[in-house]
Specification:
The protein is of the alpha/beta class. It folds into 2 domains: 197 residues, NAD(P)-binding Rossmann-like Domain (Rossmann fold), CATH 3.40.50; 253 residues, Rossmann fold. 43% of the residues lie in helices and 13% in strands. The protein is built from 18 helices and 14 strands. Helix 9 crosses helix 11, helix 9 packs parallel to helix 12 and helix 12 packs across helix 13. It starts with a strand and ends in a 23-residue tail after the last strand.
Length: 452
């Protein structure tokens, strides 16, 4: 099949490359000429394991192309996927659909023959209905079907998620379009129960509901961690004990400094706004959003407590900046709140991340970005593990300790072993393991980022 993917960002590029890999003829279209030029030269603008090789292999095979010209790509396509950004709208938290609707108008003008127009972007309930209206108004003679096909790609594991999905959700109201989508995904060899055909509005809501539920699980684990600290229990044992229950599951029950990234913050907010517009109270989602902001804001004071109650004039080394490992994404990363909070408290910051430092430089100032984890810790009064990159667990902490001013380790991901760190002379502070009082930590002072 011939596929045009509108938008060559994270979702568009991964989806386009994977569709080419399973045998389709794909053109990825983007209005940014610099981005397209880079992709044509094999330069991938994002870090995603295996993506560079996937793009290279399929461009060489002639199955994957990149272009700034939308009309010819759309005219030849059986399927047009819209994968443009839907950021939070400034001021009210609703999803900004201006890029989606602009793409729909551009696509409408170029349609020839029956075409499945697929929304891959994360969009609120009713967006497909509005897109159908926009395309019909812009091109009354167009033969098309509007389809919702939300993505469930985890950064760092996106290719595996596309090729071996838990499920594919397709919201469709047209039998002809249903057949087209079945053909599109047939090369994956999925079982029938893995492809879930729903109404469009259900598909749109599934994406938001899934992300909100996962965000709630993370927040629940974080609040459990605070309780564990107060009563002397180990949160790792508690979450393992409840996660073994098949009704609950072990995933997304690891405590930390709060969730971030491109999806959970904006999607929980957008779902909450949709509910409010419909006079529905999603109290659990509202509390999740509030609790997560408070948690991220509280981390700088948790670090200050580990440093004896004062960080003014001290140097803090941060290991890991991205919101999760195996990505270069800094959007809504807890590290940004931590850096700004510690700077407000008078600390100096040294930082290292394997992939995220270029993006971090655009977000924060007065930070020394080191070339390695060892360099970041030189002269530091404390090291703080913020993102659980696998390489950090393998560091030689006895060697690192030799270059530090004070041996304080704050492990916000529970990645390291207490016995190992204490054997090297560190005062070790984890999350939810009975070593740091939780009382009062989640009420951010006015000087903290995100405070009222």
């Amino acid at each position: 099949m011939r596929v045009a993917v509108i938008g060559s960002g994270y979702v568009g590029l991964v989806s386009g490359a994977c569709l080419a890999e399973i045998g389709h003829q794909v053109v990825c279209v983007d209005k940014n000429p610099q981005q397209i030029d880079s992709l044509c030269r094999g330069v991938i603008p994002i870090f995603e394991e295996g993506l560079e090789q996937l793009v290279s292999r399929n461009t060489a095979a002639g199955r994957l192309e990149f272009s700034t010209e939308l009309p010819p790509a759309v005219r030849q396509a059986d399927v047009v996927m819209i994968a443009v950004g839907t950021p939070s709208r400034r001021g009210d938290g609703h999803a900004d659909l201006s890029f989606v609707y602009a793409a729909a108008r551009d696509v409408a003008a170029a349609l020839e023959g029956f075409t499945a127009i697929v929304t891959k972007s994360t969009v609120p309930v009713g967006t497909s209905d509005e897109m159908e209206r926009i395309v019909s108004e812009a091109n009354p003679k167009a033969q098309f079907a509007a389809i919702s096909n939300p993505e469930f790609l985890r950064e760092g594991a996106a290719i595996a998620d596309f090729m071996r999905p838990d499920r594919i959700v397709i919201g469709v109201e047209d039998e002809r379009a249903r057949a087209v989508m079945h053909r599109l995904y047939a090369p994956l060899g999925l079982r029938d129960e893995q492809i879930l055909f729903t109404h469009r509005r259900a598909a749109e809501l599934i994406k938001y509901a899934a992300n909100a539920f996962l965000a709630m699980k993370i927040t629940f684990a974080n609040e459990l961690a605070d309780l564990c600290e107060a009563v002397g229990a180990d949160v790792n044992e508690v979450t393992l004990g409840i996660g073994k229950d098949a009704r609950i599951g072990e995933k997304f029950l690891r405590p930390g400094p709060g969730y971030g990234g491109s999806c959970f913050p904006k999607d929980t907010m957008a779902l909450m706004r949709t509910a409010q517009e419909n006079q529905i109270a999603l109290r659990l989602v509202e509390t999740t959003v509030s609790a997560n902001d408070s948690r991220k804001a509280a981390m700088s004071r948790r670090i200050m407590a580990a440093c004896g109650g004062r960080v003014r004039g001290k140097t803090i080394a941060l290991l890991g900046l991205t919101f999760k490992p195996n990505t270069d994404d800094m959007r809504e990363a807890p590290s940004l709140w931590i850096i700004r909070g510690l700077q407000d408290l008078g600390a100096r910051i040294r930082a290292y991340d394997p992939e995220g430092m270029d993006a971090a430089r655009k977000e924060v100032t007065n930070v020394h970005f080191a070339k390695s984890a060892h360099e970041a810790c030189i002269g530091a009064d404390a090291l703080v593990l913020v993102t659980e990159w696998p390489e950090f667990a393998a560091l030689n902490f006895s060697e690192i300790a030799l270059g530090m001013n004070a041996l304080v380790c704050v492990d916000l991901r529970n990645q390291l072993e207490r016995e190992t760190m204490e054997a090297q002379g560190f005062s070790y502070h984890a999350v939810g393991r009975g070593n740091t009082p939780a009382h009062g930590l989640d009420a951010p002072p006015s000087s903290q980022p995100g405070a009222n």
